[in-house]
Specification:
This protein is mainly α. It is built from five helices and two strands, in the order H-H-H-E-E-H-H. A two-stranded antiparallel ribbon has the order 1-2. Keywords: DNA-binding, Transcription, Transcription regulation.
Length: about 140
């Protein structure tokens, strides 16, 4: 599985989040969702630059951060490869939850909520749900 098609970076220049951090966050999300697995190659800096029109040094900074965290490994002349995953549950195990969340998201959209509204609502509920975990 050494293809790089599993992740396509989308940069939101208005988000207020540093571009390299968006790459780090999107890579981690792909790892959590099982879209990237150990052995997979990340897109090359050139591929990311062509797709997003960002500075190559920004991509390299993101990849260095992922390497520092032990998630990827740069192999000279070959590319940057995933070394470990962040997925808690296997993708097959979370399919029912994903379907429920997709249904809920469609209902929220039908009720007139915008993407940012849904995100804020979900984040607020998520934070409240996991607050107890931090207190212990």
């Amino acid at each position: 599985m050494a293809e790089s098609a599993a992740v396509e970076y989308r940069i939101d220049r208005r988000s207020g989040v540093a571009t390299y951090l968006q790459i780090v966050q999107q890579t981690k999300q792909a790892l959590r969702l099982g879209l990237l697995e150990p052995g997979d190659r990340l897109p090359t800096a050139r591929e990311v630059v062509e797709a997003t029109a960002i500075n190559p040094n920004t991509v390299l900074k993101a990849y260095r951060e992922l390497e520092r965290e032990g998630l990827v490994e740069a192999r000279r002349g070959l590319g940057t490869f995933v070394t470990r995953t962040l997925g808690g549950a296997a993708a097959a195990d979370d399919a029912p939850l994903r379907a429920e969340l997709a249904d809920w998201t469609r209902r929220a959209r039908a009720a007139g909520l915008e993407k940012d509204d849904v995100s804020a609502l979900f984040t607020a509920v998520l934070d409240r749900t996991f607050e107890g975990d931090r207190a212990g």
